[in-house]
Amino acid sequence: MMKQNKNILIGYIAICIYACLSGISFAWTKRLLVAGLPVFTLVLIRLIIGAFFLLIVLKLCGKLERLKRKDLLWFICLAMGEPVIYFIGEDFGMKYVDASFASVIIAMIPVLVAFAIPLVFGGKIKKSLVVGAGISLVGIVVMSFNKNGFTFDVRGLLFLLLALSAAIWFNVFLQKLLKTYGAFSVTAYINLIGAIAYIPLFFIFDYSQIDKVQWTGQMIGDLICLGVFCSAGSYGFYSFAAKKLSVEKVSVFNNVAPIITILAAVLMGMELFTIRKTLGILIVVLGVIISQGLLKKRKTSFE
User: Fold this and answer.
1) Which of 134, 87, 119 is nearest to 235 (CA)?
2) CA dist 33 → 90, 98, 194, 298 (Å)
3) Among 150, 72, 130, which Cα is nearest to 252's?
4) R_g over Cα of the chain
5) Which residues sit opposite 301 in a β-bridge?
6) Mean pLDDT by 10 residues, the chain (303 residues)
7) Which of 12, 22, 43, 185 could join 65 via S-S bond, C-beta 3.0 to 4.6 A?
8) What is the pLDDT, as a whole number, of residue 23?
9) What is the pTM of this model?
């Protein structure tokens, strides 16, 4: 029992680290895009950095697991969900819609994952997960809504729905592979496969623009941070937490990332706290607490 409680605690620590890294990554990504770095170039470089960082560290520590040939297709399917298709949907979606609308669409991931995992693998749909994820979604809406409402382009919505589908796909395949592989080995391989998949996209769409990029030390630093802390770190901690807890439970913490983004923006002087944002943050936190079953002694579920 003590060991189980320790694993649960470690899992929650890992997913909190993921939420922090995921939230902070927005600042680095935004700065690189504003500096003129093309999307496919940005993603390719961060994936290469993330893949080689993890492969080298795991190899030196003797923790790198060999990818079995029979599982290669499963890893390719996982990587196609995230990072490949997800980043295409999210980054291009952001070109046509504002951040508030995008955050609401992405916040639907935990709700849909709570249904998708039991449907694919069997089992009961946990009421606390669905209710908690739904409440956290309401919190994101409260934080994101402004006096002008939501404005969006249909193209942006379609790209974001593509990202949404890819995220669900990723979580389903992640659940399967974590049964036989360690979390950071899985992360290393999907970064490597993702980088290979992005190479032709780079040459098709970005190669002709790369000589126009004005490289600076800050850009290189931001790319290293994205590769090490986000592509390697955040994905690794997410998978690690999913192995300790469950994919459905940790997916709800995706809705904590926008809170970290807001806090970081406030600390950097980019945004101010408002009553609406404060209320939204409290609602998200309440939703996460409910989703983890922390407000009741017994788990309730329905089929």
Assistant:
1) 87
2) 13, 15, 20, 47
3) 130
4) 19
5) 126
6) 83 94 82 88 96 97 95 96 91 74 80 89 86 89 70 81 93 93 96 97 94 94 95 96 93 85 70 79 90 64 40
7) 185
8) 81
9) 0.86
Q: How far is residue 286 from each of residues 129, 137, 279, 289, measured CA to CA in Å? A: 12, 11, 11, 5
CB 184 within 8 A of CB 54: yes
The residue with tokens 């946990």 is 126
Identify the pLDDT of residue 162: 94
What is d(CA 80, CA 164) in angstroms, rounded to the nearest whole number?
13
- The predicted pLDDT at position 108 comes to 87
* Unique residue bearing structure tokens 């809705």: 255
Tokens 């993890």 correspond to 54
